[in-house]
Amino acid sequence: MTTSAFNHKKYRAFQPVQLNDRQWPSQVLTEAPQWCSVDLRDGNQALIDPMTVEQKKQMWALLVRMGFKEIEVGFPSASQPDYDFVRWLIEANQIPADVTIQVLVQARDELIERTYQALEGVRRAVVHVYNSTSPVQRNRVFNLDKDGIVAIARHGATKVMVESQKYPQTEWVFQYSPESFSSTEVEFATEVCNAVIDVWQPTPENKAIINLPATVESAMPNVFADQVEWFCRHVSHRDSITVSIHTHNDRGCAIAAAEMALLAGADRIEGTLLGNGERTGNMDIVTMAMNLYSQGIDPELDVSIADDIIATVEACTNIKTHPRHPWMGELVYTAFSGSHQDAIRKCLAVQDDDEPWDVAYLPIDPRDIGRTYQSVIRVNSQSGKGGASYIVEQALGITLPRWVQIELAQKVQAATEAEGGELSGVQILDIFRESFSPREGQFELASYQTEHKDGSHSIHAALHDGSQLLTLHGRGQGSISAFTDALHKAIGLDIQVVQFDEMALSEGSDAMAMAFVQVSIRGQRFTATAKDTDTLSASFGAIVHALNIAVMGGAR
After folding, report:
1. Rounded distance between C-alpha atoms, residue 221 and residue 286, angstroms
2. 129: nearest Cα among 95, 97, 153
3. CB count, 10 Å around CB of 169?
4. Which has more pLDDT, 251 or 410?
5. Is the pLDDT of residue 384 over 70?
6. In this structure, what are the phi and psi dihedrals at residue 202, rounded to the nearest 5 degrees?
7. DSSP β-ladder status, 70-74 and 100-106
8. Which band of pLDDT confidence, cut at 50, 70 and 90, is reported for residue 381?
9. What is the pLDDT of residues 46-96, one digit of tens each?
10. pLDDT, average across residues 232-248
11. Which residue blocks in 128-170 are alpha helix, DSSP H?
12. Beta carbons of 437 and 395 less than 8 angstroms apart
């Protein structure tokens, strides 16, 4: 008997925080947090091939363009390329007046000194110092007790503060992270942070940043929210610190954890564009910003430039964006399902620009991030009448009659099954035209003249039948019935118009009209369309097209 390596009993359930009077579930987000991009540091260190200097410049330009006010630009004491990039930003005067750069450093003297050297001459900067606090780090990595961990944190905080005094021309902001906060006993994490705060002595006017990382996501996001709320209640000098959150996506809940942490009292969010980062990635700032936007909250970041964001991130990270990536993926506003397409089409038809957005299956207007409705509805073998109809209607500026929609869907369905994949808009338009207004056929209307007298209509027309010119005469209650009567007398086919519709394609003296007909010939129904500057000519043309389709199908 073999034993599977997949064994859940080797793992222990995460112990939740005892917080029976938690308040965060009743809170509501009403504004964006302070954002800090860590693409150039945390995101960069997770890449197979770290960014080149040119890629870093490209990413920096995008982050500034999007409106980030705090950007972590590297780990200059541990990486010469990071050091050089920080110097380029400062010496080339690349930092806008309203943007603050942030750098990361371990709580080690020589690294802190090197960090300040890299930042010399900067107007304002955040120095972000950290040390590990979780039990596994204490016991298995550093072999230190809790007092030893607190001593490292206190020493690092002191060194950061003392070293900053050598550079009085710069406005310094201090930030501390108890690394692996999410895996640390919340009481001890708070004790360590209080020790750092005691060193820095921040004030409401000169706040310090305490960053709480879910370095490894260890529990459900509601547990993380409990940890954050407990921390916010017990940390000292709460009015003098900015509580920052840095979540990772090991359980796939980084965004949920960050959002719940804001409800629990956090002020600031660190993350990356599209979630690049260690293992399963960092918290995706773009997704979270779009989440806020979709709730009517200004994200205070320009996420409307979706294509630019995707192109830049892909160019700098060499990682493709998944087509189902929330909000930004190529397919996230695309409907293949027939019922979805029909619902979207109907909602868009009645959605007014000055009313709240309310369209089935589309949580936001795709145009807000530079997408078009043409990309919303795409047609494959799973699609119904709505998708193909929408594409034709958008191309021609019309609304197809329902009976035309149904027949078009059948023809498109047959084509998608034959192709074995998706059809483009051009292919669907070709199917529409070839099916309902074929360019070639046996019959062609040469001329006609109608007359209305004594309550009835008469017509005199000339019709090419492929070999000769036929003269037609007919009478009926209307011009169309008179025309079908004339066709019956000339070619011997009883033609009944079962469905008829017409609409204008444009306005003005040279406006085009389109006519749609469904005729019955010997028990079979044939649908056709034609357009002309004259509505009656379009109607007669549609009937002739239907006749040609019937003849080609063997109805004669």
Report:
1. 19
2. 153
3. 8
4. 251
5. no
6. -70, 165
7. parallel
8. very low
9. 999 999 988 999 999 999 999 999 999 999 999 999 999 999 999 999 999
10. 98
11. 135-136, 146-164
12. no
Check: CB of residue 505 under 8 Å from CB of residue 396: yes
Count of alpha carbons within 13 angstroms of residue 271, beta-carbon side? 28
Q: Are 82 and 89 in contact (CB under 8 A)?
A: no
HSE, side-chain direction, 13 A CA sphere, residue 141: 10
Most confident of 65-69, 338-342, 439-443, 452-456: 65-69
- pLDDT number for residue 504: 81
Q: What angle do CA 484, 485, 486 make, to 5 degrees?
A: 90
Place of tokens 């500034």: 64
Q: Where are the domains of the chain?
A: 32-317, 338-436, 444-552
Residue that the structure tokens 């009448």 belong to? 385
Query: Helix 146-164 and helix 109-118: axis angle, to 10°?
Result: 30
| Most confident among 72-76, 388-392, 434-438, 549-553 (mean pLDDT) | 72-76
Nearest to 291 by CA among 257, 338, 248: 257
The one-letter amino acid at 488? H
The candidate with the shortest Cα–Cα distance to 14, out of 213, 156, 228, 222, is 222
pLDDT (0 to 100) of residue 230? 98
| Residue that has been written with the tokens 């109809």 in this structure | 389
pLDDT for 371 equals 76
In CATH, which of 3.30.450.40, 3.40.50.150, 3.40.50.300, 3.20.20.70 is domain 32-317? Answer: 3.20.20.70
What lies within 8 Å, CB to CB, of 80 at 6+ separation is none
- Tokens for 348, please give them: 């868009």
**Sorting pLDDT into bands at 50, 70 and 90, what band is 520?**
confident
Structure tokens of 247? Answer: 């979540």
Using DSSP, state whether 247 is helix, strand or coil: strand
User: What share of residues in the chain are helix, strand, coil (percent, to 5)?
Assistant: 45, 20, 35
Yes or no: say if 380 and 423 are a contact pair by the CB < 8 Å rule.
yes
Residue 287 to residue 48: CA distance in whole angstroms: 23
Whether 32-317 shares its CATH topology with 444-552 is answered no
Q: Which residues contact 469 (CB under 8 A, 6 or more apart)?
A: 446, 462, 463
450, 480 contact by CB (below 8 A) = no
* Residue 51, SS3 per DSSP: coil
Sheet holding 456-464, edge to edge: 444-453, 456-464, 469-476
Q: What is the C-alpha separation between 172 and 244, in angstroms, rounded?
A: 17
DSSP string over 108-145: -HHHHHHHHHHTTT-SEEEEEEEEE-SHHIIIIIS---
Q: Specify the fold of 444-552.
A: Double Stranded RNA Binding Domain (3.30.160)
* Distances in whole angstroms, Cα of residue 123 to Cα of each of 53, 173, 210: 22, 11, 22
